[in-house]
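Run log, item B.
One chain of 147 residues. Sequence copied directly from the ordering sheet:
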Amino acid sequence: MLKIAGELSAKTLIFDIEPLVAYWDSGQDTLDQGLAAVLAKAVTVPGVAVVCFATNSLRRPTAVPSHPGVRVVYLASARKPLWTAPYAGFPRPGVVIGDQIATDGMLARRLGYTFVDYRPPGIHVPWGPRLLNLSGRLTRPLFFTRQ
């Protein structure tokens, strides 16, 4: 997924939290460690200036990790895809990496960013996200086509 960001010369990377950084039912330590691990990989993308972690849930890290020369942002209760104001000042081009077309994909579309649809293999997805995933798959042909 980061290979695509590098090929696009992305300056902004937006990561969905669940399940890419930490699973839905995981604890605080898992979230904190996941943020640090994903950030360590994200900053290897040449030219990246902003790494944003966004979740529609209320969960927050103990502390937002940092990296010299890269702005790191964490958005809880992000209201994806409806609320775009927090992303307005991020440099372009950008990539949203997430597992839900209905939220992450539509956020990418609204921002004019590339969407990388990524689901870690072998995970158990709770019913709510599973239903959201189904609705996103049904709308995919309407909003996402290859040009």
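Observations after the first pass:
- Residues 127-143 form the longest helix (17 residues).
- The mean pLDDT is 88.
Flagged for discussion on Thursday.
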